Amino acid sequence: MRVPRLLFAGRFMSLLIVLPVLAGSAYGQTRALKIDDLAKRAELVAVGRVSDMVSEWSADRTHILTRVTLSVQEYVKGEGASTVTITTLGGEVGEVGELYTHVPTFRQNETVVVFLEAGAQGSYHVSGGTQGKYNVEPDPVSGVPVVAGKDRLQDFTSMVRAASQR
């Protein structure tokens, strides 16, 4: 699935607009997914911290891919190793960068909940695009981890477990 991307080199920016080709949508809009939908689609749901990120050109040098290493703190659905590799479209290589809409971006050391589907060569991709990645931050008052600024992490993971068993 190709979506609009932003290419930039050094101080000069150029915008390359490619019409998105989205299955089942003549207007190029993505259907909002509920937690139930994400939980059922995902092979793995993990809570973890981004411990490494490496961006590189694809084999045919047509786009940039980023491999994100997630140090898993907890598997909410499925089982796996202590780390998971997530591959996303976009990233920066040298002075060239690509940014795709509907593709989640990651930051070093951020804590996230991700809904993952199996990808190529043992890696995973985020199910549902940006809808399948949730940031986890401490509540400014209580210090309790919250998901997307509203749900306690413990409540969110309980809800995901229940949804994946339906």
Any overview of this molecule?
25% of the residues are buried. Strands 3, 4, 5, 8, 9, 10, 11 and 12 form an 8-stranded antiparallel sheet that branches. Residues 1-28 have low confidence and may be disordered. The radius of gyration is 17 Å and the shape is globular. Helix 1 crosses helix 2. The longest helix is centred in the last third of the chain and has 13 residues, at 153-165. A hairpin with a 5-residue loop joins strand 4 and strand 5 (83-89). The protein is built from 2 helices and 12 strands. The chain is mainly β and 166 residues long. The protein has helices at 35-41, 153-165, and strands at residues 5-9, 12-16, 44-57, 64-77, 83-89, 91-93, 96-100, 111-118, 124-126, 133-138, 145-147, 151-152. It has a single domain (32-92, 101-165), classed as OB fold (Dihydrolipoamide Acetyltransferase, E2P) (Beta Barrel).
